[in-house]
Design a protein that fits this description.
The complex is a heterodimer of chains A (362) and B (514). Chain A has 362 residues and is mostly helical. In chain A, helix 4 packs across helix 5, helix 5 runs antiparallel to helix 6 and helix 10 crosses helix 11. Chain B is 77% helix and 0% strand. Chain B is globular, with a radius of gyration of 27 Å. Classes of the chains: A mainly alpha (362), B mainly alpha (514).
Chain lengths: 362, 514
């Protein structure tokens, strides 16, 4: 742990009461440092950060990566979704075909040893490697999620901050515009575009969903700006002659960044669920493209016979969404100035004994 | 206040007008409703095209056709709204009238369960902040947040419905399950109750023992095939309810409230056999409703006759006890119907269906069997929707209650020496409910239109299905009808939420700005 030394010092300090412990701890640290320390203390969030990083690296390096035909990186996995390897017959339970070869039980415990095998997640009806399909689907879902989060986050922040800062007519117009966007179902825009331009692919889907995903965020940011603009430091900046732009970017936005980051994380975890749900009912990513929701939709009927076709895409959705939710929770705790850390029993005892010592010395 | 409502309604109708105009034109250019007819080889193809064109006024360009549609909608003000025709020749109003009750039935129970469970668990986690229970519930709620409903639905179908139906063929709970259930219930209740290590283990032992006994008795006596409560158990449970409700609502120290509630619990024993007679002789929703009214009236009288001062809380307590105990009698009636229901040919001992909103083959005229059929079809979607949506309520009520508990008025209440019950239930809980109420209103309006995926997974045909039909079949009037209902509902719900907020919280005044 990086912060070990500092907390050791804190334990030595004779402090009385919980506030004193909390205050001592953040002495001489910048806002960013405080937030970072609080975040890294949230064990679930740090663990989730590790999980999501692992998933992203794992998934995006698995398959071949091509960029406009000029940049081509070979993936580490031997199959691609286009390959048609031979369907595995025999040695599957209940006379099914194409069962997963992944094995997590070591040989010592009677398993087949830890290894991926030829088709770790099994094969689909025509023998395509399901592992590569899931990788492709996860790539799609992750990129859709990032685009929605980026677009929704940017638009929401811009509209929310303008409307909260300028108030009055600008605010009224922008908020009515927000209400207006809320009432329009995004699916319809998608189907219009789909009819006129054909299937434009997953990134376009993400693009138009992002154009409709910012409404909740903009309301939150607006509320934050409405309170922050009344604070003394904004008055001070204005008296000192700062322009509106400077006040927004240098004074208010850094203070609202906690709310923005937290709600963007929630937007991210919501959007991966939205994308998979839309693909599931046939309004999102469509074949021949692959998405996690699409995979689940395609193989839900084979759940009783070949459950692996159903489990793996779902597990990826859940682990991504769950990790992001925990990261969001950690960020919220880290950014919330009212949040006081739980004082452990040991610290409380130490502070109590220190107080007693101090009283005895008096 | 009136001016505020009028101004808000005015702005909202302008927004609705704008979005419906854009939506209409968007949807109109999203496809050609005649496309499949034009491709058909039917000899009277031209006639069909012409008649559909005439019926849907397709010869009018979309922007102008929008105003024809709007004219029909404005019929609301003269009590004759016209949503237009849908492509299959029926009126949209008719389809909506069929779909809305289905959707409400689908989401009502789930929303209520989610709210009650979510708030209860949220409050307990807030009171036991940073305990193991808090951490595990936080994990559970985040897990629920991250679950795709279509995925959960398939799992529920497999493990809850099909496995339970298989289990009913030979309803003996295996010993492993009994032990597992006992340990789970012991850990759950012990963590909820909390306290010192000794209390923890006492609670664990008691809860685990009770759970194990109940499950074994059920298993041995074939209860799962022929369930029922009977008057004795109902009375016992009613007494328990009376104590619990009184404790939460006014505290056991209030003897008048306790006596009134216990009287109502006793009356449930007296009323049990007359109620059975009414259920059998005059089945129907009307008689259930009348009996509910009679119960509440009696509860009011009992409450009033036992109380001298401070009548309102006592009457309230009595009413809650009475409604809950009467609910037990109805549940008991449903349980008695279970066996005849399972024996019908349509069910044939597989009572939990995985799809649909009622059994089409069921031809029993009996009111209770038909109601039970609806209930069993509601079971899986309700569980799925509850699981998905109650996580939000847990998080929200936990956060709000923690915020409230930090306020100065809570410290004041504690300093005055009020009991912990009074502080939590009267000072903290009520203030927690203010923001929650407004969320509930908006949420409920949202799920009416938003159960698209649930409906498609469980094969229900409600509003979501109509929306899908309209979108895929280029059925403009149908699509706009669904949009009109859901959009107006959400707009009205937002307005109601704002008004409720100001009514509940005197610090908030509407009408100033906005």
């Amino acid at each position: 742990m990086v912060f070990k030394k500092k907390s050791d010092q804190n334990a030595e300090v004779n402090s009385s009461g919980e506030n004193a412990i909390a205050n001592k701890e953040i002495e001489g640290l910048s806002q960013g440092q405080i937030v970072r320390r609080r975040f890294f203390r949230h064990r679930a969030a740090v663990f989730s950060l590790g999980v999501i990083t692992f998933i992203v690296v794992f998934v995006f390096t698995a398959l071949d990566f091509r960029f406009l035909g000029i940049w081509h990186v070979k993936g580490w996995w031997k199959w691609s979704p286009e390959d048609l390897p031979e369907l595995r017959f025999g040695d599957c339970p209940n006379d099914t075909v194409g069962c997963p070869t992944i094995s997590l039980l070591p040989k010592a415990l009677g398993g087949n040893g830890i290894g991926l095998g030829d088709h770790p997640f099994g094969q689909d009806d025509i023998g395509r490697d399901f592992f590569s399909l899931v990788m492709k689907g996860t790539q799609r879902s992750l990129s859709v999620m990032v685009v929605i989060g980026f677009l929704g986050g940017t638009i929401g922040t811009v509209i929310g901050s303008i409307s909260g800062y300028y108030r009055g007519k600008v605010d009224a117009v922008l908020m009515r515009f927000t209400d207006f966007i809320i009432t329009i179902p995004a699916i319809i825009i998608g189907s219009v575009v789909g009819y006129h331009f054909g299937n434009l692919g997953a990134i376009f889907l993400a693009f138009y969903l992002g154009l409709f995903a910012w409404t909740g965020l903009s309301r939150l940011v607006r509320g934050e700006f409405l309170t922050l603009r009344e604070r003394e430091f904004v008055d001070a900046a204005r008296v000192a002659g700062a322009s509106n732009r400077r006040i927004i970017f240098k004074h208010i936005l850094p203070n609202a960044v906690g709310v923005i980051i937290v709600s963007v994380t929630l937007l991210l975890s919501g959007s991966i669920l939205l994308e998979t749900a839309l693909s599931y009912i046939g309004f999102g990513v469509v074949e021949p493209d692959v998405s996690l929701g699409l995979l689940i939709n395609k193989y839900q009927d084979s759940f009783t016979t070949r459950p692996w076709l159903f489990w793996y895409p779902g597990l990826f959705i859940i682990s991504i969404a769950l990790s992001i939710n925990f990261i969001g929770d950690g960020l919220r705790d880290a950014f919330d100035p009212r949040q006081r850390r739980r004082i452990s029993k040991k610290e409380r005892q130490e502070s109590a004994s220190a107080r007693k010592l101090a009283q005895a010395n008096d | 206040m009136l001016a505020f409502i009028m101004r808000r309604l005015g702005i909202l109708s302008v927004i609705l007008f704008g979005s419906s105009f854009i939506l209409y034109n968007m949807a109109a250019i999203s496809g050609d409703p005649l496309a499949d007819l034009k491709l058909s080889t039917d000899p009277n193809r031209d006639f069909l095209v012409a008649s559909l064109t005439r019926e849907l006024q397709l010869d009018v360009p979309p922007p102008a056709r929008y105003f024809l549609w709007l004219k029909g909608i404005f019929g609301i003000f003269i009590g004759k709204p016209d949503f237009g025709m849908s492509r299959d020749g029926s009126t949209v109003a008719h389809s909506l009238a069929l779909a809305i009750p289905v959707t409400i039935r689908l989401v009502l129970a789930a929303t209520i369960f989610a709210i009650v469970l979510g708030i209860a668990i949220g409050i307990v986690t807030a009171l036991r902040q940073y305990s193991r229970f808090d951490y595990s519930m936080t994990f559970v709620s985040f897990l629920m947040f991250s679950l795709p409903i279509f995925w959960v639905a398939v799992l529920l179908k497999e493990y809850l419905a099909i496995s339970f139906n298989n289990f009913l063929r030979e309803p003996n709970v295996p010993i492993g399950w009994i032990i597992g259930l006992a340990i789970f219930s012991g850990v759950f209740w012990a963590s909820v109750i909390g306290g010192s290590r000794k209390t923890f283990w006492t609670a664990f032992g008691a809860a685990a023992g009770i759970a194990a006994t109940i499950v074994s008795v059920f298993s041995l006596s074939g209860w799962f095939l022929n369930p029922g409560l009977g008057p004795i158990i109902i009375t016992g449970m009613s007494v328990g309810i009376a104590y619990g409700v009184t404790q939460l609502s006014v505290g056991l120290i209030n003897k008048a409230a306790l006596k009134a509630s216990l009287t109502m619990a006793g009356l449930s024993l007296v009323a049990y056999y007359p109620a059975q007679w009414v259920f059998d002789k005059h089945p129907g929703s009307l008689s259930v409703f009348i009996m509910a009214c009679v119960t509440i009236t009696i509860a009011v009288f009992v409450g009033l006759s036992f109380s001298k001062i401070d009548r309102a809380p006592i009457v309230r307590t009595t009413i809650i006890t009475a409604v809950l105990s009467a609910g037990l009698v109805v549940v008991d009636k449903f349980m008695q119907t279970w066996k005849p229901y399972m024996e019908t040919d349509a069910i044939n001992y597989r009572p939990v269906p995985t799809i649909g909103q009622r059994s089409d083959l069921l031809d029993s005229p009996d009111y209770w069997i038909k109601s039970l059929d609806i209930a069993t079809h509601l079971f899986l979607p309700t569980v799925a929707l509850t699981l998905i949506s109650f996580a939000g309520y847990i998080r929200y009520s936990r956060g709000t209650l923690l915020e409230v508990l930090n306020q100065d008025y809570i410290r004041t209440a504690r300093a005055k020496g009020l009991t912990e019950r009074t502080v939590i239930m009267r000072h903290a809980f009520r203030n927690t409910m203010i923001p929650l109420t407004t969320i509930m209103v908006v949420d409920f309006a949202g799920v009416i239109g938003g159960a698209l995926i649930t409906e498609s997974v469980f094969g229900w045909s409600g509003m979501g299905t109509l929306f899908r039909q309209g979108l895929l079949g280029y059925d403009l009037n149908l699509l706009m009808g669904v949009f009109f209902i859901t959009a107006s509902l959400s707009v009205i719900a937002n307005l109601v939420a704002d008004l409720l907020y100001s009514a509940l919280d005197p610090r908030i005044r509407v009408g100033g700005g906005a």
